[in-house]
Amino acid sequence: MPAALQIHPTRRCNLSCRHCYSASGPGVRDELTPGLLTAAVAGAAARGYTALAVSGGEPLLYPGLPRVLAAARLAGMTTSMVTNGLLLGTRRFRAAAPLLDAVAVSLDGTPAAHDALRGRAGAFARMRAGLGVLRRAGLPFALVLTLTQHNVDQLEWAAAFAADQGAGLLHVHPLEQSGAAAVQLPHSTPDAVELLVARAEADRLRARHPGLAIHVDAAAPAELRAPGALPDPLVVETDGTVSPVRYGFPRRYALGNLHDRPLPELLDAWDGEPLRRLVAVLPRTGIVNVADALSRLAEAAQPAASTSRSFAANSGGLPA
Amino acid sequence: MAEARGSEALIARLSEQDGITAEFAADLVAALDGAQPLELTRRGAGVQFVFAGRADDDEWSGAATARVLGLGRKHGVRFDLDWFPYGIIEPDLLLGRIRLAENLAGPR
Fold first, then answer.
1. Phi first, then psi: what are they for A86, rounded to 5°?
2. What's the gap between Cα A306 and its chain centre?
3. Range of the structural domain that residue B47 is part of
4. In a domain, B108, yes or no
5. CATH at B87
6. Is B53 among the domain residues?
7. Which residues of chain B have a CB within 8 Å of the CB of A196?
8. Which key words tag this protein in UniProt (chain A) (predicted)?
9. B87: nearest CA in chain A?
10. Does residue B102 carry a pLDDT above 60?
11. What residues of chain A, 169 to 198, have a C-beta less than 8 Å from chain B?
12. Which of the residues in chain A have pLDDT under 70?
């Protein structure tokens, strides 16, 4: 697996989705400068990161997108972005397309479910039109479905839609209880049963759509990997915070901020041991969304000085 | 009212697609109290019901087996029940599989 640098250059978005983990929207203007990001991209590539994934906010609303993608290409990285798909017919996308290796487009279920979560009638129709643009451009694309407690029964529909549209991958990502979702969709994060059923459904649907890869972000204990020497993914948030695991991961585990120090210095100073301790105390039964489980553990953990004692008390002792 | 689990809607739909009565499906789930239904679908002319149960609890799996066999008597059908490990679930879960063979009268 390539080590991935995930950047969120802007929280500006043309939608205000009910499940947005970063609470992005039309009224949000936070963004990082292209200069800061191109330096971070070059620094990450020099340390072995081989894939750049741009998210947001809506990346196509970030004026510096082509410049950042070009820097990644120059550094030898593959490039991708996650988009809501509404702006794929615009000049902004035509400028970015030659610099992209793949595109991931958000899909939230059937047209009615999609429009409801996106908060805009017609969002599904515009997204589907955008998929036609990707096909004509010959760009490989994935559809990213947010799994909730209530929609695993829509995977069958989503897989058929993805196969029909020519997607290479249906990526099923569990809802995260952060950002807008924490307020607007409480109690909707899929529990272990829904994650398990999603994995079983994915097995069934792979057999039905042999040309479509289906990946569910839910791991069995045997699939857990201890964090390596460098965080993977490495996440650059819109305020400059550099985090492991995912956007919004508890700040105590952050590497620091790009506004304070360049990325290579943050990587040099990173101590991965606290994160390794978290992974070590993940539940060893059932299926988990690893990023979500780690976030909850990190939020529950005591401040760094008493971390070990806290884990020992809660888990019956830390692994050696 | 709380929104339904997606898995419940999925099981209901698969049951309906495969001509399995809701009563039989509900009885199966009840008989396997503590298990998680994953799939109820036609396999050739037969029917297959797959569920996850607790591999570390022989008492539970034995009792569940007895209940399922009793269910067969109630509905006037015979079927095979076997347990098998499944790659994604470990170490304390396994899958059960109930197969209604094609030469047996299934619930219709």
1. -80, -20
2. 31
3. 6-100
4. no
5. 3.30.1360
6. yes
7. 36, 38, 52, 88-89
8. Iron, Iron-sulfur, Metal-binding, S-adenosyl-L-methionine
9. A220
10. no
11. 187-188, 190, 193-194, 196-197
12. 1-2, 220-222, 284-286, 302-320
> Which of chain B's residues have a Cβ under 8 Å away from the Cβ of A286?
92-93
**Contact pairs from chain A to chain B, CB under 8 Å:** 62
Q: Write out pLDDT tens, residues A134-185.
A: 999 999 999 999 999 999 889 999 999 999 999 999 999 999 877 777 777 7
ipTM of the complex: 0.71
Using a CB-CB cut-off of 8 Å, the residues of chain A touching B48 are: none
B1 falls within a domain: no
Long-range CB pairs of A207-213, under 8 A, 24+ apart, other chains included:
A208/A159, A209/A159, A209/A160, A209/A162, A209/A163, A211/A163, A212/A159, A212/A162, A212/A163, A212/A167, A212/A168, A212/A169, A212/A170, A213/A168, A213/A169, A213/A170
* DSSP-derived 3-state class of residue A296: helix
- Can you tell me the distance from the alpha carbon of A67 to that of A283, in angstroms, rounded to the nearest whole number? 42
Residues A220, B90: C-beta atoms closer than 8 Å: yes
Q: Please state, in angstroms and rounded to a whole number, the distance separating the CA atoms of residues A233 and A275.
A: 13
B38-81 confidence digits (pLDDT tens): 555 544 444 556 666 655 566 666 677 677 767 766 666 556 56
Q: Which of A150, A200, A221 sits opposite B39 (nearest CB)?
A: A200
DSSP string, B50-94: EEEEETT-HHHHHHHHHHHHHHHHHHT---EEEEE--TTS-SSEE
Task: Please count the structural domains in chain B.
Answer: 1
Per the structure block, which two tokens stand in for A130? 């955008």
Residues of chain B numbered 69-88 and touching chain A (CB < 8 Å)? 88
Residue B6 is inside which H or E element, if any? helix B6-17
| A197 with B3: Cβ contact below 8 A | no
Residue B73 covered by a domain? yes
